[in-house]
Amino acid sequence: MKLTEAVIHLMEETTFFISEHTSFSVIIGRLPTIALVSAVVFFILLLLIIEQKNAKLRLYALPIIGIVISVFSVRYSPFGQVHMIDVGQGESILIKEPWGRGNYLIDTGGLANWNSEEPWEVRKSAFNVGEDIVVPVLKSQGVHRIETVIITHSDWDHYGGLDDLSKHLPIKAVLATESTLTDPAFLASLQHLQLTDTDMLSVEKHPLEALPEQLRALDSFQPTQDNKNNESLILIGLIGEYTWLFTGDLEKEGEQNLLKMYPNMTVDVLKVGHHGSQTSTTDSFLDHLSPTYAWISAGKNNSYGHPHSDVMTRLEKREIEIYQTNVQGAIQYRYTDSWLLDKLLHQVSFIQTKNIEKE
């Protein structure tokens, strides 16, 4: 057993040295029980082989391969997902492709900062949606880098976590409308991001760039002086078995314009606009799109009354299945692009999940 003790001691010393002298980290995700147990079993097997005298090199292959597969089973999972993160009164949606091919984030959430006048109103420690919610959730899903962060429009509750997110994970590109990329408040918030190599791309100039192949941006945003919501960048695409429409904070006028430009459009899953505000998700919009599912991101007991009872009535009247973060927490759709895995494991489903920080 002396050799085993020496190997373990060497691993401990190496780990300590790396943690003390470098900022290097490996994000593997939160391992499910079966993966964790498998990793331990393969590690014990490896130690037993090490204990054997004159063990052949090929005997090491099975436990080493088993450990690697178990440890990286989340990061390179054969299942993709659409994950609506529970960021409170805001919005952030992760699209993670199967086999770790790419990670995309639609908006980052963001908590408004209110000026506190009384000492009892000041938090002992500042809460940040990007660092305290979005980053832990992404890392728990094995996300080690983000290909593109898509900012739908320049409202703080959709981009407020972006700069802090860039401190923890590399971001290859940010995609947004020209009006968002030139918004003074948006630019002023990106103190750290502007020091990185992240590309800032306008969807008007790069409509097909930086998006996953199954998504495309709809040319429907209308720059206005009085309503940022109708400038929202709209995305549509086939993910898994369903056609999805991501609407940002689109309101009635924007919905009408969208239907005029795309009169034959129907979808399976509608990301309800503006957190379920009364000014969005009109009867004509729902009748035209005819969705089967509706996803709503809103804060629990929020002061805006989102989602509005009128919107809920419209959805329920049409027997649209509703998923909402203020009731169910984070929402996740898992899928695979492998027909065999789909049939054998039956993993294509909607799942209500709790965020990592709430468990």
Overall description:
This is Metallo-beta-lactamase domain-containing protein. Helix content is 33%, strand content 18%. The chain has 359 residues and is of the alpha/beta class. The chain has two domains: 2-71, no CATH class; 80-358, Metallo-beta-lactamase, Chain A (4-Layer Sandwich). Helix 2 (33-51) packs antiparallel against helix 3.
Main attributes of the structure:
single chain; 359 residues; alpha/beta; Metallo-beta-lactamase, Chain A; 2 domains; 8-stranded mixed sheet; 13 helices; Competence_ComEC/Rec2; membrane; transmembrane helix; RibonucZ/Hydroxyglut_hydro
Tell me briefly what this model is.
With 359 residues, the chain is α/β, with parallel strands linked by helices. The chain has helices at residues 2-21, 33-51, 61-71, 129-140, 156-159, 162-166, 178-181, 184-188, 252-261, 283-289, 309-317, 325-328, 339-345; strands at residues 80-84, 93-96, 103-106, 146-150, 171-176, 199-202, 215-218, 234-239, 242-246, 269-271, 293-296, 321-324, 330-335, 349-353. The chain is 33% helix and 18% strand.
Give the structural class: alpha/beta
Low-confidence stretches: 347-359
- Total E-strand runs: 14
As for the CATH topology of the largest domain, it is Metallo-beta-lactamase, Chain A
CATH architecture designation of the largest domain = 4-Layer Sandwich
Q: Going by CATH, what is the homologous superfamily of the largest domain?
A: Ribonuclease Z/Hydroxyacylglutathione hydrolase-like
Mean pLDDT: 86
Order of helices and strands: HHHEEEHEHHEHHEEEEHEHEHEHEHE
What count of helical segments does DSSP give? 13
Helix content: 25-40%
**Rg over C-alpha atoms, rounded to the nearest angstrom:** 23 Å
Strand portion: 15-25%
Could you give a short account of the major beta sheet?
8 strands, mixed
Q: Termini, distance in Å?
A: 39 Å
Strand order of the largest sheet: 6-5-4-3-2-1-13-14
CATH class of the largest domain: Alpha Beta
Pfam family, one: Lactamase_B
Keywords: Membrane, Transmembrane, Transmembrane helix
Transmembrane segments: 27-50, 57-76
Protein name: Metallo-beta-lactamase domain-containing protein
